[in-house]
Amino acid sequence: MSALARRTGSVNLGQGFPDWNPPEPLLAAASHAISHGDHQYPPVRGLPELRRAVSADLALRCGIEVDPETEVVITAGATEGLTAAILALVGEGDEVVFPEPFYDAYPAAVTMAGGVPVTVPLTGPDYVLDEAGLAAAVSPRTRMILLNTPNNPTGRVLTRPELDAVARTAAAHDLIVLVDEVYEHLVYDGREHLSPAAVPGMRSRTLTVGSAAKTFSATGWKVGWVSGPAELVGAVARVKQYLSFATQGPLQTAVVAGLNLPASYFADLRGAMERRRDLLCAGLTAAGFAVTRPEGGYFVLADASGLGVTDAADYADWLARHGKVVAIPGGTYFTDARSGAHLLRFAFCKTDEALRTAVARLSGLRDIADAYRAPASRGRTP
Ligand SMILES: Cc1ncc(COP(=O)(O)O)c(C=O)c1O
Question: Contacts for 362-365 with beta carbons within 8 Å, 24 or more apart?
Answer without folding.
Answer: 362/283, 362/284, 362/286, 362/287, 362/323, 362/325, 363/283, 363/286, 363/287, 364/323, 365/287, 365/288, 365/307, 365/319, 365/323
